Description:
Layout: E1 2-6, H1 13-26, E2 32-38, H2 43-47, E3 59-61, H3 67-70, E4 78-84, H4 91-98, E5 103-108, H5 112-119, H6 127-134, E6 146-153, H7 158-169, E7 173-174, E8 179-180, H8 183-186, H9 200-210
Parallel strand pairs: 1-4, 1-5, 2-3, 2-4, 5-6, 6-7, 6-8
Helix pairs in contact: 1-9, 4-6
Amino acid sequence: MLIANVSPRTMAKTTDTAWLCHALQDDEEQYDIVGYDADHSKQFERWSQKDKGDFRFPVHLQASAQFHKEVVPPTGKTIAMVDCGHSENHPHITDSVLRLADLVILHMSPTGADYERIVEPPDATPFMDILKRTAPLRPSRAMPPTWVLLNRTVHNAGSTAYYRTEMAKEGYEVFTTVIPRSETLGQSMGFPILDAAKTPFGALVTEMKKRGLLPVAEKVQDLR
Length: 224
């Protein structure tokens, strides 16, 4: 499957993408990961290099408006994780990635600024409209399943619940799992990622499996 990690602007998307990749690898399902850096910043790919994060999976540079023609989504328990360029600045890349996406994760901090950039940006297209315009170009002719991941949250802050409700009103599914504001996560760029399954990203993988968003091995019932 192919998971598109998206945001209109800088919203901790690349950090989330990298940690989620490692949490998927650490999970009991032992997902195989292949990364695609579809952002001109090349941050995801640079972070994967041996002298920086030393990832256990390859990350390919693929910031192209022809992404949908150049990438073949994997099957089985292999997951292609795409760090997509900001939709405000690179709409053609976003459109191309969305044509292939089996799942879209929309990364967002629970703030008025991030909410506005997604729902009613002053000089850009609302993200729901991006999903709608891409739908006719997809094999299913339908929008891909899209879930909001709230990140940089503050413990017990009312903003998390408020923006969860507001995004639901806008027609989005919202993960129960949130990614808290954390120095460990915020300062991890360029350093090896360790024990990802023990972080909120491990909890996110568990939630994704429970919601049927990830492939899982069939459990064989013992009838003896």
